[in-house]
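Sequence only, no structure available. Ideas?
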Amino acid sequence: MSAQTMKAVGLYKYLPIDHPESLIDVELEKPAPGGRDLLVKVKAISVNPVDVKVRAPKNKTEDSPKVLGWDVAGVVEQTGPDCTLFKPGDEVYYAGSITRPGGNSEFHLVDERIVGAKPATLDFAQAAALPLTSITAWEGLFDRLGVSQRREDNEGKSILMIGAAGGVGSIAVQLAKYVGLTVIGTASRSESAEWAKALGADYIINHNEEFVPQLKPFNLEQVDYIFCLNSTEKHWKSMADAIAPQGKICSIVETAEPLNITLIKNKSATFVWEFMFTRPMFQTEDMIRQHHLLNELSRLVDQGVIRTTIKEKLAPIDAATLRKAHAMLESGRTIGKVVVEND
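Reply:
I predicted one. Tokens follow.
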């Protein structure tokens, strides 16, 4: 392999994950950074539901390999001419942009405004577990739901996290506890319930049953906030019943059918979406907020406030390993994050 090329994992066809061509090893031209882009040498990546959704079987083919992967930890190799935030040799972590090639490659281009300094206390694999889920959790809680980051403002306030043991839930539970909210997590298995409790959830209820009757034993008739990380339409009626008057609901899960938002009208409740790729996708004026929040997250990690949610570590970064990681996610039984690192 020449100095001008790099290894990557990509796809031409959208196939079931047990098909050997669902993800394949490819060789691509090594990119060069322009503008505010960083060229990052990838050390570790993690796999998210978005990877599985993008790769899902469909009647479509690509002329050139499509590279997935939106969670990277690595080292800045080179900077574009307009970069001011990082320099070569800096250790970084980020989620990237859904509209650009992903990070399942030896080198990767990313806009520095959505990149953070890697937590000093974590290795690359531990850091790679954090960006996408942390940005989603942070934006969902603080930007979309409007939760205050001052503990004194949240005294007596509660949040219900639907799917508390998943990737986003694992971070959101920790952040919500840090800012002083009472956290009720949902789980349907004992392992996921124990995981959520270990991360700080005060109470656990089952998301396969109605919410309100399960909240009453905790002296909670209704909750101030709901963060839905699992099947929005399945839980919509329960969410509408459980949300407090003038409360706020945020979901990250798209629906297959329209929601009856009239259910929350009499409560003057807010419903809002969170999609962490919005800022980079639309190049919003405030996209640098992702740089700042990742730096703040690094500080919280290094202080021991937030812990990485890595649960499985695989190696090396190649097609066979990534097919295995995708299959693990498709099982629907993963707790925390699956990370793939180079040997």
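The domain at 5-130+308-341 is CATH 3.90.180.10 (Quinone Oxidoreductase; Chain A, domain 1).
Hope that gets you unstuck.
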